[in-house]
Amino acid sequence: xxxxxxxxxxxxxxxPGAARRVTAWVLAALAYxxxxxxxxxxxxxxxxxxxxxxxxxALLLSIPDASAPTTQTGDPSISRLPALCLLVFIxxxxxxxxxxxxxxxxxxxxxxxxxADSALDLFARIDPAAGTARLVTLTRNASGTYRIALLxxxxxxxxxxxxxxxxxxRTRARDLILLVGTMTALAGLAGQLVIPQGNTLWWVxxxxxxxxxxxxxxxxxxxYAAFMALLSGLPVLTVFLSGKRSPPALLALAVPVVxxxxxxxxxxxxxxxxxxxxxxxxxxxxxxTSGRRRALPVIAAIFAMALLLALAVRPVxxxxxxxxxxxxxxxxxxxxxxxxxxxxxxxxxxxAGGGPNAFRVLYPQFRRxxxxxxxxxxxxxxxxxxxxxxxxxxxxxxxxxVSVLRSxxxxxxxxxxx
Length: 418
Fold this sequence. Notes:
This protein is mainly alpha-helical. The protein has helices at 10-13, 15-36, 43-62, 80-92, 107-126, 142-164, 167-193, 221-231, 233-241, 247-266, 270-289, 296-311, 314-321, 330-348, 359-366, 381-414, and strands at residues 97-98, 135-136, 200-201, 205-206.
C-alpha cells in the first residue's frame, strides 16, 4: 500500500528550491558587500559585476518550485512575476548602453549625450591613448539606483522566505515586529516627554543633522512617526485575526494597540497623522472582508480614544489645527513646488523616467522655486515614482499592487485566519 505524503512533510522535500533561495541570498549579499567595501570612486568599475550578481539572484528566484501547486488559492506567487519584472526594470537602468539610444532617454538626455560625445571627440584628439567610452546608463544616478535595486532584492527575498516559512515562524516574526515597534514607540515617547535624547539616536549614537529632531532610532521625528503609523494596524489585526488568546496575551497586546497611534499623534507630524487615519481605514476594510465586522466598533473606539488623548495635549491640538489652512504653511508650499519640479522632470523623461533615486541629481536642473535650495526626495512617493520610473515604472508598480491585493483577497476568502 502506498501512503500519501503528509502535508506537514512537504516543506522539507523541496530541497532544490531551498538551495536556490539560499544561493540568491548569498549573491545579493555579495552584490551589497562588493560596493560597501570599496571606495565610492571605484563604483563605476564594480557596477557591472554588482548588476550581474543581482540579475543572477533574480533569475534563481524566478524558477518556480517543483513541489508547489500551480492552482493554490491565494498563492503569493501571483505577485512574483510583476515583482521580478519591476526588479529587472531597475537593473536594466544600470546596464551601460550606447549613447543616444533613442527617444526612450528623452530629448534633454539625448542632447546631453550628444554634447558629451562631442567633448569626448575633442578629448580624443588631444590624447588618443586615453580612448573614448561611449556607453551610458538610463539612470542619471547609478549609485542611487543600485541602492534601490538592493532594497528591491531584499524585499523580494524576504517575501520568498515568508512564503515558505511555517506558520509558527510567521507568528514569531510578527510578535518580534510588535515587540520592536513597542520598544521604538515607548522610546520615542520617553525622548519626547521624559528624557530628551538631543541630537542622538537611542541617547547614545550621534544623529545626522536634519530639519526635524531625532526620535528613538530615527534621525527625524517624521520618519519615526511614519514608521509607527504603518505599524498601527498590526496589533489590532493580531487581536482579532489570530484566534483565541489568554488574558495576559491580550493585556500585552493592549500596549501597542494604544501606544502606536498615540505616538504618531504626539510626534506632531501631520503627514503621519493622515497616514494613521488611512491605516485605520485599511484595518477596518481588512476586518470587514474577513468576516470580523463586530470588531469595527472596537477599532473605532480605540482610535477615538487615542485621538482624544492626544488632542488633550495643547501642542498636538495646535498642530492639528493647522490642517484647516494647510495650503498656507511653508511645508505645504515647499512640497507643492517639489511636486511641480518632479512633473517637469517626468516631462523630459516620460517613458523610463530619470532612474530610481535620481531625483536628487536631476532636481537642481529643473528647480524653479526658491522654497528649498536642495531636496533629495519629493515628499510624495507617487509623484517621485512618476519622475524616476516614468510610465513604465508606474505601470509595473500598479501591476504589482493589483497582484498583491488579488493574492491577499483570495487567501482571506479561502482561509480567514491566514
